[in-house]
Amino acid sequence: MTDLTTAAADSLLRSPLNERHAALGAKFAAFGGWSMPLEYAGGGVLKEHTAVREAVGVFDVSHLGKARVTGPGAADFVNACLSNDLGRIGPGRAQYTLCCDEATGGVVDDIIAYLYGDEHVFLIPNAANTAEVVRRLRAAAPAGVTVTDEHRAYAVLAVQGPRSADLLGALGLPTEHDYMSFSTATLAVGDGEPVELVVCRTGYTGEHGYELVVPEAGATAVWDALFAAGEPYGLRACGLAARDTLRTEMGYPLHGQDLSLEITPVQARSGWAVGWNKPAFWGRDALLAEKAAGPRRLLWGLAAQDRGIPRPGMRVVAGDTEVGTVTSGTFSPTNKSGIGLALLDTAAGLTEGATVEVDVRGRRSVMKVVRPPFVQPSVR
Fold first, then answer.
1. pTM of model > 0.85
2. What number of other Cβ atoms are within 10 A of residue 320's Cβ?
3. Burial profile 206-241: b = 16 or more Cβ within 10 angstroms, e = fewer
4. Along the 380 residues of the chain, how does pLDDT read in single tens digits?
5. Going by DSSP bridges, is the β-strand pair 321-332/337-345 parallel, antiparallel, or unpaired?
6. How far apart are CA 237 and CA 123, in angstroms?
7. CA 20 to 30 Å from 361, out of 103, 119, 297, 329?
């Protein structure tokens, strides 16, 4: 994320909720080609992070992409392209999946797929990668299957935290979903037209939570309704900085750092999102070969044993040997210590509990190799 100058901000896309963020004193940053709130006045990252762990926070993540695949055999087509197996779920369920490069198995993007039925799949990729995911799907789509880029047609609000169900319930929205399931709903918004939206039991924080997919025209009304009802539940607006600390505490990967065209699902320990027994998906042969041979590097967690804070790009060393690179790193507000994710060379033979050092601006910080999450999840 990059702080914005006026000139840089003028070239970026804006959420339909941009004015609401400005009114709350948001500090904006560039993210995936969008100007999005990094944090808000009167709180900042620590208070926003704590609100999600202890009460409820709402994130505007409308920068996330939206694409729709429809037509006879649409679900089978998506299943033959993306890594996970839609056959594991049924209509009304969502699934985390990966769009991999056919030749290398590297990750073009990670995606949430909403399965409506055999002829309808809705996809939420990352902002910067939406056009490329759509391009690849369109190029491969058979006759009769349509891939539509709906990036600007919808807003997405992530309502996350142990009081999230209470808040949505107060608005009359459904909350009894199983994890990774969704339903459509109607929200009454005062004197305005009711808003039709999708409520899905997903999130990126490790807490019980929901993501609301809202038509762009209804985004402001839904945001206002959340805040009109939210005070008794401790609702706080949260920016992308808190989203990053929350997801890092869970060990959730961020595309462009922990997953990329250069980092495969095997290396990133994301093989659970691969339907290994499927007859076809992009990158299948390359990934099966890598899995059989064993990857040259693996993603591990790093827990600081001193006051050091790992940051992306920092070198990881064992003795005098460089053994890897930090891909994500931050200060954990929950643990009050530095945490990170790092790709470590398998040839180094490092295992859970091993001690390494991270070069933090010329000073070596001691880190323990661990398996995330760094905090106990509550998503189930």
1. yes
2. 5
3. bbbbbbbbbeeebbbbbbebbbebbeebbbbbbbbb
4. 455 445 466 789 999 999 999 999 999 999 999 999 999 999 899 999 999 999 999 999 999 999 999 999 999 999 999 999 999 999 999 999 999 999 999 999 999 999 999 999 999 999 999 999 999 999 999 999 999 999 999 999 999 999 999 999 999 999 999 999 999 999 999 888 999 999 999 999 999 999 999 999 999 999 999 999 999 999 999 999 999 999 999 999 999 999 999 999 999 999 999 999 999 999 999 999 999 999 999 999 999 999 999 999 999 999 999 999 999 999 999 999 999 999 999 999 999 999 999 999 999 999 999 999 999 877 66
5. antiparallel
6. 25
7. 297
Q: Which two tokens stand for residue 315?
A: 């070198």
Q: In terms of residues, how long is the chain?
A: 380
Q: In this structure, what token pair is assigned to residue 277?
A: 């027994």
